[in-house]
Design goal:
single chain, alpha+beta, four-stranded mixed sheet, 11 helices, globular
Amino acid sequence: MAAEGMLLMDFYTANPLCSPSRAALLTGRLPIRNGFYTTNDHARNGYTPQEIVGGIADSEVLVSELLAQAGYRNKIIGKWHLGHRPQYLPLRHGFHEWFGAPNCHFGPYDNKATPNIPVYNGSDMVGRYYEDFAISRASGESNLTQLYVQEALDFIDRQAAAGRPFFLYWAPDATHGPLYASRGFLGTSRRGLYGDAVRELDHGVGRILSRLRDRGLDTNTLVFFTSDNGAAMVSRSKGGSNGPFLCGKQTTFEGGMREPAIAWWPSRIQPGQISHQLSTVMDLFSTALDLAGAVPPSDRVYDGTSLLPTLLNGTEVDRPVFYYRGDELMAVRYGLYKAHFWTWTNGEDERSKGIDFCRGEDVPGVTTMQQVNHTDSPLLFHLGRDPGERYSIKPKSSEYKQAMRKLEDLVAVHRAGLLPGEPQFNMCDSAVMNWAPPGCEKLGRCLKGPKSKPYKCPWPH
């Protein structure tokens, strides 16, 4: 893809965790605006496990809704993660089709204390992970990625036959623990099961691109490849690598939020390009609407901008990137300078249990195990000379003073225009878990859940 398109070297997700990143991609708005954060404790990452009461609010307008209004046929394949209760599911928010699950494929569970995660086809559950859709925790074998690839190919074929514009949101999760790969890919990588899963995803992407070519759609289809957060360093050798970047998933260091990104559009995007345009997943919202000629509601602030000038003409413009962890603005980048106003990896209590978001990459005063407020004297790094954020610029230097003036001005403007959304990750309740998903009654597979006992969700990091 990169050889035939554009590699974006300075591309960011909107959060160092899954659910908030996906909500930002689909709404074009930071999680602090669209409600995908918590105020239960300061600067805590949250997401949408089965116990979560909240989800994507009806007041948020998703790119899928706007594209549907513009005549597009929309499908999501794989993990949704914007809430699992009926009112939050994708067919309520602009998608016409869905094959996948509302949550991560954690399990197996006993369906007594915790239900297994349902898999949906359209608006109805068609089974559950580990029961009807096998994932072997012993061998790592599962055919899920193959199912997701075939769903994509079938969808493309149908839209090609109908001559209809489409939006395909392909969100497989084989590289999220517990890892899995199909039989034909097991044991094929020197990187173990994680490498097997990556190879299968790579093969699947190749099949999707080939199908677009076969149907004559490649020159009229923008394909964008990226991730929702950095590799999980807590997984050690069973996870990915963030290369030279510091730490990983759960943190607002570069390893937590800077992502691989490839844009592919034969005949429109010139091959073999590399761009250093600062960009984020929220730009995909604006880019898609730009391509479709759709206009988003004007009653709210958006954090993305269309990447078409960059993708088609190689244009690069200066803009900031804001790094949030929960309800706190942790850092900001502009140009090659990044300032940390707060630092935190995770607590010593978790480190003692082997939970380490920085895999031993301790940088004194930077990868702090406690939340440290640097607002009075932010830590400043030059990401060109120091992409690993190891050598902060001295506060008394003229370079520091000049860079910080600009960064602090950008933060002041950002804060002045910030209207936080209603936090969706504050309340949990075992009664809202996937006991009786839509469609379970048709299968005779509904489960009886406990009585409602809402409680504040505990977010340790």
